[in-house]
Amino acid sequence: MGTSTRLIQRRIKSVTNTKKITKAMELVAASKMRKAVSSVLASRPYAEAAWRAIREMAKVTSTELHPLLQTKPGADRILVLLFSSDRGLCGGFNSQMMRGLTKFIDDLGENLTADFITVGRKGQNMIRRRGCNITASFTDLSAHPVVTDIRPMAKLAIDDFTSEKYGAVYLAFTDYVSALVQKPNISQLLPITRIEGLGEVSEALAGIDKAESDVNESLNIGAREYLFEPSPQDVLNVMLPRLVEAQIYQAMLETSAAEHSARMVAMRSATDAATEMIDSLTLSYNRARQAGITAEIAEISSGKSALESNR
Amino acid sequence: MNLIFELTTPERVVAKKEVVGITVPTQAGEITVLPGHIPLVSSLKPGMITLHLLEGQEEYLAVSGGFLEVQPTGRVILLADSAERAEELDLQKVEEARERARRALEEKRDIDEVAATAAISALERELARERTARKYRDLKHRPISN
What we know:
The complex is a heterodimer of chains A (311) and B (146). With 311 residues, chain A is α/β, with parallel strands linked by helices. Chain A is built from 6 helices and 8 strands. Chain A has 2 domains: 2-26 and 266-297, ATP synthase, gamma subunit, helix hairpin domain (Helix Hairpins, Orthogonal Bundle); 32-198 and 235-265, ATP synthase, F1 complex, gamma subunit (Pyruvate Kinase, Chain: A, domain 1), CATH 3.40.1380. Chain A has helices at 3-60, 93-108, 121-130, 147-162, 201-220, 232-310; strands at 77-83, 113-119, 133-138, 168-176, 182-190, 194-195, 199-200, 227-229. By secondary structure, chain B is α+β, with helices and mostly antiparallel strands. Chain B has 2 helices and 10 strands. In chain B, strands 2-1-9-8-5 form a 5-stranded mixed beta sheet, with no helix packed on it. A 5-stranded antiparallel beta sheet of chain B has the order 4-3-6-7-10, covered by helices on one side. In chain B, a hairpin with a 2-residue loop joins strand 3 (21-26) and strand 4 (29-33). In chain B, helix 1 runs antiparallel to helix 2. Chain B is globular and about 55 Å long. At the A-B interface, helix 1, strand 8 and helix 6 of A face strand 5 and strand 8 of B. Strand 8 (227-229) of chain A pairs parallel with strand 5 (40-44) of chain B.
């Protein structure tokens, strides 16, 4: 019963404590993930309804003329909104995103440089280490993102895009596919060409031709044209930035759900590893204890036989 | 034929129910949408929405700007930047928030134009909330019997 059993016992105790922590983190991450996933679903109807209204508008006004829909061929810079986590201990979540981003930047070619707006401390550090330009950085948002958090980002992106500082704006976020699978995703935000999950803008604009025949048809059955107040252009001017906001918000929620699920999985495997370690430590502890007992018995019996032979 | 009213913000679906009429504050003034309204898209300004329920009662909601879409099918979809049901509002907290917004506006008025604009919209939003909360409180205190 020497130092070795005591050492093993101490290790078992410390691993047990670590296991308690990882288990708690797993449970916290799981509940945060559920919350984030339900927020993602709750934010869907807004984007869908806004999109439908824009389709309607495309029939009566020239949506192509809006600055947020136009490509800017002259610009040599692009802006990337990078979503990452504030904290670590979430497995390969951030490095996965970074790998995707590196590939994306390499594919851009020489004559395009990327500036960044980062959300989350990890992304900020990674971009800084790469030596890229960060125009703005936001932290401590991922716990419970609300729309007001993303308004400043949307404003920055829209203002810099319309002032032709950037040729395009991209969203780099992690898609929550399932609790086990998260996929880094980089998609174009501006100019608006397609809306995530809702389809291509060109499709909606192509609806114009079809709409005209619809109008002719509907004239017979009573006009069902939408009335726009104050004017279609005004409504569009306010609607499009909101659609951009809704998309950024959605990306943020997806990232948050993905982060929490990545952390949950990482913490679960840490808990499993701890359990395994405790098992093997307990085994060697028992072995050491048994060895100690055997040695003691051997000592006693050999001592006894020595006494007997002396008599 | 009744209207199906849906109020959605980017965060959640605030309300979805069948009503006989809706009074909303639009940029062009307050309008009431009744069944059979022509299809309309209109932008809203911060204010109070009144839902005229089937049983003759009224329900109040506060919005801080957004859009109204009246579909030919009789569905009325409201996309709001933010919205609350009257019963979700705490009058005291709303009054405090309104005071904060008013002070912020006074501080920033001649100094920072951007901040002043933000303060104005915050003030408008809080005023709309306050009106809604008051209306709800008054209604609760002396219930209209019909």
